[in-house]
Amino acid sequence: MYGDTPVFVILLEGGPEAATEALLAGARDVLIAPVHLPELRARLDAYIRARSDVRDAHEALRARDLLFDIFQEVSSALRPDEIFQTLVRRVGQAFGLSHCSFVLSAPGEDKGRVVAVYENPAIRDLRVDLSRYPEIQEAIRTERPVVIQDVHDHPLFAAIRQHWSQQQIEVNVQAAVALPVFVQGRAAGVFFLRTQKGDPQLRPEDVAFANTIAQAAARVLENEERRSAMYRRQISAGTTDELTGCASLDALDRRLRDEFERARRYALHFSLVVIDIDHLHEINERLGHTAGDRVLGEIGALVQRELRAPDFVARYGGEEFACVLPETDGPGGRHFIERLRQVFARHTFGDLGPANAPAISAGVVAYPHSEALRPEDLFTLAESALHKAKTGAADRIAVMGES
Q: What is the pTM of this model?
């Protein structure tokens, strides 16, 4: 009848029996006349505090569950741009934001690179003029979060408001939040939120939650920097194929042995994927070996961009690549190849022109496998799967299943 409204009962007569009946009927509290008003107020204040504590506890649990859910989804993403897109999408949905994005920039730069946008997922690499976003500039300059509840009267927006007025630009933005993301102690980007007039107001706990997400993005960037540093060390150590930029055969052999031993010792799983570039010899005959080498180099760069930080790719032969994918089963290896095909289809190869992406075949073997007793057994199984893919598989992908 009263919903969630607390009912306080004041009894003018009836004594303890009437008070008991009122409590059993659902009253939050009962006072028997004569009522001492300070006591009544103290009881009401105590109830309000308890209700607030319960609400805060529920909010904390909701935030914890949401964080766990987000990080579970992030853990399944393979590439940094997928991770950034997941983070902005989940935060945008959680708070009903009009705009949520991740912008890479650094102190002193006047341009930023937008790598993920909640309301327009198609944007993955957009250059923007930071003079249009004073909150981003301020967050990077001060290396502190910037929270502005109303951009129409805040002094930080004075210059841009004048620009809006001169250009007769109708701006519906209400609040703006820029949370700096640090990589190895320096600002590398900003987690950027904006609301429009009529949107729910961003509360301090909302900003704190978004800041937690921003720091997760920082870990992604740090992983990418470590991978880049490792790649540079590989080149200097002669463990990288100069044409494709991928690892050499010797490096592949060492990595596969390490991954095999790790998986065997700790009961983990991983996949070895061998990729063949179909009909590359025809490109060589038609356009020349120099053009064929350029196509191989582009393919090597594209494959590397699609890898997660723990993944590994090497040039396996003249027109073949091999990928070691930790924590990936057979279907996961197939999904990797399918996504790689989509990337090739979107990419314009300089020597081939648009809509002329090279076709690929692939063999996948997932460990553990009953026939893989040694690391070299995985090469045999993967090559067998590749042969099957090239001669019989409808989608030119063959997977040697796990046992």
A: 0.47
